């Protein structure tokens, strides 16, 4: 298509390919505090929106960690979800009633299925 000859085929479809938000906000707890998220939002995104920047500490030295890559590659954003450690906050969808806890170090590999 020549520049300026026609509109993009996607121009008539606002939001094409973008998930639509429906329903009310999702509530879950983090470290005993209630957090709200948009439906479909990741735990990591909800924590950042709530003002958190870190929620895990490293095994050696206790350095703070939170979302780094945001796509599940780096494992810096690990949290414990409903008693299950080593869950990546950037990939875990916030669900109503979930109990999310900060994680110290690498968690327990025997529980991280």
From TrEMBL:
It holds the Pfam family Fer2_4. Gene3D superfamilies: 2Fe-2S iron-sulphur cluster binding domain, sarcosine oxidase, alpha subunit, N-terminal domain. It comes from the Bacteria. The keyword Oxidoreductase applies. Residues 1-24, 94-113 are annotated as: Disordered. One of its GO terms (molecular function) is iron-sulfur cluster binding. Keywords: Oxidoreductase. Residues 95-113 have a biased composition (Basic and acidic residues). This is (2Fe-2S)-binding protein.
């Amino acid at each position: 298509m020549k520049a300026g000859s026609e509109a993009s085929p996607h121009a008539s479809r606002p939001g094409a390919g973008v998930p639509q938000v429906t329903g009310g906000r999702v509530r879950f707890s983090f470290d005993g505090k209630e957090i709200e998220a948009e439906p479909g939002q990741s735990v990591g995104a909800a924590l950042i929106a709530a003002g958190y920047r870190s929620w895990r500490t490293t095994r050696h030295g206790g350095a703070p960690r939170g979302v780094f890559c945001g796509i599940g590659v780096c494992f810096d954003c690990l949290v414990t979800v409903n008693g299950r450690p080593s869950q990546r906050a950037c990939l875990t969808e916030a669900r109503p009633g979930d109990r999310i806890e900060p994680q110290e170090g690498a968690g327990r590999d025997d529980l991280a299925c």
